[in-house]
Amino acid sequence: MLAWSLEAPGSFGKREIPQPGPSDLSSGEVLLRVLVGGICGSDLPYFAGKLHSTMADDNTPGVARIAGYPLHEIVGEVVASRYEHLEAGERVVGWATGVNALTGFVVNAGRDVHAYDTALGAVEAITLQPLACVLGAMNDLGDVRGATVAVLGQGPTGLLFSHVAKTRGARVVTGVDRINRADCAADFGLDRFEHSSTDRWAATIGAEDAPDVIIEAIGHQVGTLTHAIEAVAVRGRIYCFGIPDDEVYPIPMKAVLRKKLTMQAGWILPDDRRAVLAEADAYLAWAPELAKGFVTDVHDFDHVPEAFQTAATPKPGQRKVAIKIAH
């Protein structure tokens, strides 16, 4: 079967690889036919050749030349199962265990995916994976009822954070982004949208408008975390979302101390994934309009390079970029 893989920073190539079958499954695994993949912001540094993968066979210079890599947001159909909670024929959504969904079939840990309500189309269903990540983070963050919340970054994940914060009772939700997302405000619960870089926004916000909670949903840089610390209110909370590019992030520790801030970060542990995916399924059943406008750009399997270029260069009106793997 065909798979895409990175051959150089920002450059994909196709290669033929063996197609896995039911005999390749170990206990707890499922064989999935990949239907749709979603491009996550955490995939883009790997696409650019900036990061070293933790996968065992990433031992080449330039990029990780791993078949199907890098794509982890997955909608698929179970072909065979050795996982007690899933059966052949079920449609599932979740994490591609090997971050290798740029191909036709993958062997996957069953605990990384969950059967979803098939009233959703496969493209719409990709919404469930980032929504599950957001819900898990908001569960960690805790009560935001009556709080003023600012979400730095209004890309696909930031927009979901805005929606969930508002539905969980935030008094005011402000989105900040250098891309004009004003068209998203009504759909995603924003009370205010600031078309600004985070440094200018942080430098110009008055103490009376300082948010109680800031969610840093941009990632990939140290500066935006510093801007969150500068802007948040005294005794405020900051949640740092996403996989960091760097091992060490310097922060203005005196400001953290003097403001008596609480800072959190996290990701979805494998044992928690099915639970948050089920929570996301219930959330979309309650707010079905969220999935209808979330994916704006759909590319087919022959145009994976174009899909990644689109995701890497966001523009007004663009939200989630998805790839149809199977037809």
What does this structure look like?
The chain is 25% helix and 26% strand. The protein has helices at 44-47, 122-125, 128-141, 156-167, 198-204, 223-231, 253-258, 273-286, 289-292, 304-312, and strands at 2-8, 11-16, 29-38, 73-81, 91-95, 105-109, 113-115, 148-152, 172-177, 192-195, 213-216, 237-241, 262-266, 295-300, 320-324. Strands 3, 4, 5, 6, 7, 14 and 15 form a seven-stranded mixed sheet that branches. A six-stranded parallel sheet has the order 10-9-8-11-12-13, sandwiched between helices. Helix 6 links the parallel strand 11 and strand 12. The relative contact order is 0.16.
Q: Could you write a compact summary of the structure shown?
A:
The chain is α/β, with parallel strands linked by helices and 327 residues long.
Question: Would you spell out the secondary-structure blueprint of this structure?
Answer:
Blueprint: E1 2-8, E2 11-16, E3 29-38, H1 44-47, E4 73-81, E5 91-95, E6 105-109, E7 113-115, H2 122-125, H3 128-141, E8 148-152, H4 156-167, E9 172-177, E10 192-195, H5 198-204, E11 213-216, H6 223-231, E12 237-241, H7 253-258, E13 262-266, H8 273-286, H9 289-292, E14 295-300, H10 304-312, E15 320-324
Parallel strand pairs: 8-9, 8-11, 9-10, 11-12, 12-13, 14-15
Antiparallel strand pairs: 1-2, 3-4, 3-6, 3-15, 4-5, 5-7
